[in-house]
Specification:
Number of helices: 16
Distance between the termini: 63 Å
Helix content: 25-40%
Number of strands: 21
Shape: globular
CATH topology of the largest domain: Nucleotidyltransferase, domain 5
Radius of gyration: 22 Å
Mean pLDDT: 93
Largest sheet: 7 strands, mixed
CATH superfamily of the largest domain: ATPase, nucleotide binding domain
Number of domains: 2
CATH class of the largest domain: Alpha Beta
Length: 506
């Protein structure tokens, strides 16, 4: 029998899908990545082709294994991490999606959320779900689908339709699909549907009635790291062998786990398509009074669940892509650093990227993006700098809300994600927060967290202490900006945000 040298992780993100293979030290030894199409049927709508994503998943696994020469038999277990809230429904007999997946950024459910909020306020379900009423989450998306196609509701009641976020879709296909694929999710993903009770970790009957969701379409909720495998990869699938699937975490919770934030008070921020700051709050949910989300951090086997506070920023790396693709001012993302570095400051220019409204801590779907503070002095370099600074300003707002909600004064911030390659962005983050910003040696902490969850379950790693040893500091940025300048900068940002609100009339 082959020695188990590795753990694999499928990282299904908003713009691409990756398969990475890790060794016992948490180092990446092999991997492959493919992008998928972003589909915009009309303003405010964002969709993905779930079948394209599954085909890409197969391909990245096959290529990573082929390139590295690693055999499936050498992999102890598989973890899955995913873009959360993105909603897929499919026919369980044919295995085909019934329509494009509705992506977490999509705004089509704003009328549903507004109507429910009128009857009891935006936070009427917070004590059950931890969430405000917002277009972000899967429950309203499912309701919209069934309202749009009533015939699908009849099919759902008869048990012919399955629902899942991307983790569920990927695991179902990996474990056989129409041939007895397992239909599961974990509490971190289930907590993003508005359909799960935060305390019991079960689907909530009242919330199902609110959104008119038939329970038969929902996956079984299993621990994020489960010694009893969810299932095994099908021999006919990309691994060509049976490998246990034992880990499942939503992407931001996976990054929290991959950053070894195992103690209450430890926090991380991921700089990707969006930006997501999570704070471990321990074994009891902390309900926010400052616009944050209460969510599951992770659940290991039969241990008590760990909760987190989360601040969600819809547009971070996506703003740099927009600057590149829509304005054409740069031709590659790294160029924005070069351009922005040519000026000492933003020249009074602020960019509020409320393309899908404002997420935490405001939750204003009526806001829209703006650039403000333009003068004859303004050049493209100032706008480039304002683009980068927008990410850091948004993070500070969440950082402050977390301190108020938790009573914990954060003294450092662990960071990960593609944008942490920007020294300018990370230095300004340290400056505007006034705390040290720390990046680990392995910056791919989302996939690493899924691998850790899977490897803990299969015994590849013995305990969390082993995982902590793997966390090695790669780079640290310390604040250089004086306090007066910091507050002046931030005051300008707050004014700009207020100007972005109320643009769309309800």
């Amino acid at each position: 029998m082959a020695e188990k040298k590795y753990v694999g992780a499928v990282d299904q993100g908003t713009t691409s899908t990756r398969f990475l293979i890790f060794n016992h030290s948490g180092d990446i030894v092999a991997g492959h990545q493919l992008e998928h199409k972003q589909i915009y049927p009309q303003a405010g709508y964002v969709e993905h082709d779930a079948m394209e994503i599954w085909n890409n998943t197969r391909e990245v696994i096959e290529r990573a294994l082929a390139r590295s020469g690693i055999k499936a038999e050498e992999i102890a277990s598989i973890g899955v991490t995913n873009q959360r809230e993105t909603t897929v429904i499919w026919d369980k007999t044919s295995g085909k999606p019934l329509r494009n997946a509705i992506v977490w950024q999509d705004l089509r459910t704003s009328a549903i959320c507004d109507e429910l909020a009128r009857k009891g306020g935006q936070y009427r379900f917070q004590k059950t779900t931890g969430l405000p009423l917002a277009t972000y989450f899967s429950g309203p998306k499912l309701k919209w689908i069934f309202d749009d196609q009533p015939e699908l509701l009849k099919e759902a009641l008869s048990g012919n339709i399955l629902f899942g976020t991307m983790d569920t879709w990927i695991i179902w296909n990996l474990t056989g699909g129409v041939n007895n694929g397992v239909h599961v999710t974990d509490p971190t993903n289930a907590s993003r549907t508005m359909l799960m009770d935060l305390k019991t970790l079960n689907w909530d009957e009242k919330m199902l009635k609110v959104f008119n969701i038939p329970e038969p379409i929902l996956p079984v909720i299993r621990p994020s790291s489960d010694p009893k495998p969810y299932g095994f990869t099908a021999k006919s699938g990309p691994f060509g062998a049976e490998v246990p699937v034992t880990g499942d975490l939503g992407d931001q919770q996976a990054a929290l786990f991959g950053q070894a934030c195992f103690k209450p008070g430890e926090a991380k921020n991921t700089y990707g398509t969006g930006c997501f700051l999570l704070l471990n709050t321990g074994n009891k949910p902390v309900f926010s009074k400052n616009g944050l989300i209460t969510t599951l951090g992770y659940k290991i086997g039969d241990q008590r669940a760990v909760y987190a506070l989360e601040g969600s920023i819809a547009v971070a790396g996506a703003l740099v892509q927009w600057f590149r693709d829509k304005l054409g001012i740069i031709t590659s993302a790294p160029e924005i650093d070069i351009m922005a570095s040519k000026v000492e400051d933003n020249g009074g220019v602020y960019f509020v990227p409320a393309f899908s409204g404002l997420f935490a801590p405001y939750w204003h779907s009526d806001a829209r993006g703006l650039i403000i503070g333009l003068t004859h002095y303004t050049g493209k370099e100032h706008i480039a700098r304002a683009v980068l600074e927008a990410v850091d300003f948004q993070a500070r707002e969440i950082f402050e809300a977390m301190a108020k909600d938790s009573g914990i004064k954060l003294t450092a911030l662990k960071v990960d994600g593609g944008m942490t390659a920007s020294d300018l962005l990370m230095q300004f983050q340290a400056d505007i927060l006034g705390v040290n910003v720390q990046r680990p040696k392995v910056a791919e902490t989302t996939a690493l967290g899924a691998a850790y969850a899977a490897g803990l379950a299969s015994g590849f790693w013995k305990n969390e202490e082993e995982l902590k040893v793997n966390w090695i500091l790669s780079k640290e940025w310390k604040p250089k900006m004086d306090a007066d300048k910091r507050e002046k900068y931030y005051k300008g940002w707050k004014k700009a945000v207020q100007k972005s609100m109320g643009w769309i009339e309800k």
